[in-house]
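Task card 7
Instruction: Convert sequence to structure tokens.
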Amino acid sequence: MRVVLENSRAAATKPSMIPVSQPSRQPPAWQRELQQAITDPAELLRAVGLGPEWLEAAHSAARLFPLKVPRGFVDRMRRGDPRDPLLLQVLPLGAEHDAVPGYVHDPVGDLAARAGPGVLQKYRGRALLVATGACAVHCRYCFRRHFPYAEENASRGGFRPALDVLRADPTLREVIVSGGDPLTLGDGRLSALLAGLQEIPHLRRVRLHSRLPVVLPERIDAGFVAAWSAVKLQKILVVHANHANEIDTSVGAAFARLRATGTTLLNQAVLLRGVNDRRDDLVELSEALFGAGVLPYYLHLLDPVAGAAHFDVPEAEARRLLDAVAARLPGYLVPRLVREVPGATSKTMLPPASR
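Output:
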């Protein structure tokens, strides 16, 4: 009996040989969604119900500029409609191969505005930080589709060299954090960058430019809200929606979470042939944005980037269109029609055709 009892005590005190599984740390939902984004043209065409006749051109154009689009954004597209305004923004087309005079790789003079590693300065009082080259979606009209992100990226060196450039210029009041898309950075890296900006005494405002609240609203989660809420500088977030169909309930909820942090929300759109070049498109976009708590801010004429000429709406037509929009909406819902001119000291405002 004694032997049995002693053996029982030994078993009770002996460490278990069965390995204890440690809970695996899952990436946040938005990162999982981003990892599952569609990058194969054939898969995109299947998802929207289009036939194989589109495939050869899509594969060819995707070799010029890769396809990338989150599945949640694809879910908002109309099946079987090759003219769907959301699809047209991301579907590679054969027209991207067309060489059009005046359409170049650096259409807005970014490289001439380089002030330091990943820092661009075009206008007095503010500078732009290229925080990353990554995006959640590859918009086919992107003016930085040819940008040399590998060399011009502020995240190299842990952001410190870029922050030193900003700290050395006491005329700066605002930093625009852009990319790529800064919200593709994880919460840790983004928090470190924001903390570095807050240490610069002459800065008053930080402005994020991001497409993620629209194409991947899961990004505006508790982790981001906590990091962004901790910023004591004035906070502006400029989102990018081109069509009212982009703004569903999940996007509206993301906007609401952002507003709760005391963030000023603005939208900048690009005027795109076939996407939003009708009066009703722009009216509905402004109404949808303001209904979700976002102020329409800029309507950009297309930057003449190589591969995107098929999206162009001529300036005279754009000005007439803005006239028609202004006749339907109160002034605060009419975005400013602008063009970016390389070397200019500000965006060039374009008046309505009636002026």
